[in-house]
Design goal:
15 helices, ATP binding, 4 domains, 616 residues, coiled coil, histidine kinase, HATPase_dom, alpha+beta, membrane, Beta-Lactamase, 18 strands, 5-stranded antiparallel sheet
């Protein structure tokens, strides 16, 4: 009896030590995971910063190009007579200002020495251009310190940013030459950067709290969602408004940004878009860009704790479960101690308690293993597939919104752009289906009409790819029903169609074609499947889903490698190498049959064959 008690006591102590050690490693693991998540978030912010920088540079080029078109289209020979110029070019001026979407309301002409000759004013409400007093535009000349540099050597599309009454502007230039080639003067367009920010960056979406901002070489805020922040030095200017705040980390941030072309870091700051800014730990990424003579740093920051809430909650729940298990062990030990007093049932109680302890230990180990696998799957899929998919959908959505803003006066084009935007957003929502792997409940498989299910899934995916791609559906009706999860079928079709679309993107002398065919499997294939898989011996009918394209085909040496995880022939911006791996995972899950045929310069065909039962 004493030996048994000693063994039981040792086991209880060992379990207690095990739980304590598990809590320690859970906390340590939390720190490691948090660092990895922070690094992943900073990488995402850096990619977003690069995207925002490209949007700004491209948009600024578009505005300069519009000014060039205006100069080419307008009659500037009568430069000394603004009334004649306005009369001859009223339509061009109206179209020009209207396309800027309230980003500019003035346009003026200066002589080669910088003397203003005449100016025009745009009334956005009346949609009308009028001649303005040249005195009204003198601030746009006197505050632009880069104007002299441009007049001495006119090479840049625009000058450096400057401020008038805490509002940021940048001047666009276009030189006007006489017939002999000498410079007659310059057209200058002052662009309101606050309006530019609202049009292009105000609605920039992150999955968590954060926003983009732009600063110049002196660390003065040029563009910001809070108008009060524009024109402020990020340290000295803010100290005047909030003298009691801690700016030590902002000084470190300023020094780091001034000494690096791009980067990412974590620092303490405040949310300046709140009525009373609260201190917060931020993760941030930045990149310096050149726009004409202006050099700006584009920065995007996000809430550090908000990104890690899920991990914190997971560790709290895990720690709670471990503590609960420890309490259960203590209770069980007391329970065992009390029942040992009854010698008549000692043996039975010992066996029962040991069995219960083993079951609980097994259950806990299974739960821990499941949680680890789930977090690993979530980390792999959400940071690779969803992030990759969002990366190529985000510029589609952003650029479509830009086009919608620029073509509000063209209802036919606007309708087409709305359809593109709707399809891209729908595709973005479709990508979120991948997150179902993180849900604790098991997916439900249902019997569904295979022809209808494939048709719906293909139609849904078809709305995402460009209209120029010819997507043909050849689906036989009433083929039967199959037991599966609808999201698995959608993901399988999505990955295969996406793979086919990307394969045909480089078609030079032929259109992009993708064909989806659903038909009964051949008798030879049916007999082979029954022979190879005894569990399919009772199945009488099989259906084959074929997805083909007219791309360049797959080389023979790559046919075996394309299904390996992370193997891809695309660039980092186009894919992660997980699409076909996901297809094979779904096929293995249901024990379906997967094969492919590919010929160089002809195309590739993927075949998925699965069992069905009759609709009758």
């Amino acid at each position: 009896m004493e030996r048994t008690n000693r063994i039981v006591n040792i086991m209880i102590v060992a379990m207690t030590i095990f739980i304590v050690v598990s809590v320690f490693f859970a906390i340590r693991g939390f720190s490691v995971i948090r660092k990895a998540t922070t690094a992943s978030g900073q990488d995402f912010l850096l990619q977003s910063t690069e995207y925002v920088g490209k949007v700004i540079q491209l948009s600024m080029k578009n505005r300069h190009q519009a000014l060039n078109y205006l100069a080419i289209d307008g009659n500037l020979k009568n430069s000394n007579d603004p009334a004649t110029y306005l009369k001859n070019s009223a339509s061009s001026l109206n179209t020009f200002f209207d396309s800027l979407n309230n980003e500019a309301d003035a346009l003026f002409y200066i002589e080669p020495d910088g003397t203003p000759l005449y100016a025009f004013h745009w009334d956005s409400k009346k949609k009308q251009v009028s001649i303005a007093d040249t005195e009204t535009i003198r601030p746009f000349i006197s505050h632009d310190l880069s104007l002299k540099q441009l007049l001495d050597k006119p090479t840049a599309q625009n000058g450096d940013s400057y401020f008038i009454n805490k509002k940021a502007y940048v001047n666009f230039y276009h030189e006007i030459r006489t017939a002999s080639g000498s410079i007659d003067g310059y057209l200058i367009l002052p662009l309101n950067l606050e309006a530019f920010y609202k049009n292009f960056l105000q609605d920039f979406e992150l999955d968590y709290k954060g926003y983009p901002m732009i600063k110049d070489r002196s660390m003065t805020v040029v563009m910001h969602p809070v108008a009060q922040q524009v024109g402020l030095d990020i340290i000295n200017g803010r100290e005047e408004l909030y003298p009691d705040f801690d700016y030590s980390d902002l000084k470190r941030l300023e020094k780091y940004q001034l000494n690096h072309d791009s980067g990412k870091l974590t620092y303490k700051s405040y949310w300046w878009d709140e009525d009373i800014p609260t201190e917060v730990l931020k993760i941030s990424a930045f990149e310096w860009i050149d726009v004409g003579l202006a050099r700006w740093v584009v920065a995007i920051n996000a809430d550090y704790n908000e990104r890690n809430d899920d991990i914190i909650n997971f560790v709290i729940v895990l720690s709670f479960l471990l503590v609960l298990l420890l309490l259960l062990i203590i209770i069980c030990s007391l329970f065992i101690h009390n029942f040992r007093k009854k010698e008549t049932i000692e043996a039975e109680n010992r066996q029962l308690i040991e069995k219960q302890k083993q079951q609980k230990m097994q259950h806990q180990l299974e739960l821990e293993l499941y949680q680890r696998n789930k977090m690993e799957t979530v980390g792999l899929l959400t940071t690779s597939i969803v992030h990759d998919m969002n990366n190529f959908l985000t510029p589609i959505i952003g650029n479509t919104q830009l086009l919608l803003e620029e073509h509000v006066d063209d209802p036919i084009l606007e309708a087409d752009l709305e359809e593109i935007l709707h399809s891209a957003q729908k595709g973005k929502r479709l990508s979120s289906n991948v997150l179902r792997f993180s849900k604790p409940q098991k997916g439900i498989q249902e019997w569904m009409d295979i022809s209808s299910a494939i048709g719906v899934a293909t139609h849904l995916i078809g709305e995402i790819i460009p209209k120029k791609v010819q997507l043909t559906l050849l689906i036989q009706e009433n083929l039967g029903t199959a037991k599966l999860e609808e999201t698995d079928l959608q993901n399988l079709i999505y990955n295969l169609i996406t793979n086919a679309y990307q394969a045909t993107k480089d078609n030079k002398n032929k259109p992009q074609k993708i064909q989806v065919t659903v038909a009964p499997a051949s008798k030879e294939l049916t007999d082979k499947l029954k022979t190879d898989n005894p569990r399919m011996s009772h199945v009488d009918r099989f259906v084959t889903l074929e997805i083909s394209d007219n791309g360049p085909g797959i080389p023979d040496e790559l046919k075996e490698k394309i299904f390996e995880p992370f193997f891809t022939t695309k660039s980092a911006d186009e894919g992660t190498g997980l699409g076909l791996f996901a297809v094979t995972s779904i096929v293995s899950k249901y024990e379906w049959h997967l094969s492919l045929e590919s010929e160089e310069n002809i195309g590739t065909r993927f075949f998925i064959t699965f069992p069905i039962r009759s609709c009758k």
